[in-house]
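Re-run with default settings, no changes from the original entry. Doing this only to confirm the output is reproducible before filing.
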Amino acid sequence: MIAGEAFVRGTFWGFLIFGLSHQNLWFRRHDTQKNDVVIDSGDTRAGHVCARCGAVAINRFRRTW
């Protein structure tokens, strides 16, 4: 796994078109400082949470069912 940080933030264009309600879940890698969108505003992804430590894993790809 790659270390980094997750954060929720909107974009300039999303704010102009949709307002404050349009925000995405982003991940910033520590090794490159590149920001990648994990989940677009309003989307749903499969995920799992560890009952012991609370770590959350989210599938970046949409369900195809």
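The helical segments are 12-18. The mean pLDDT is 82.
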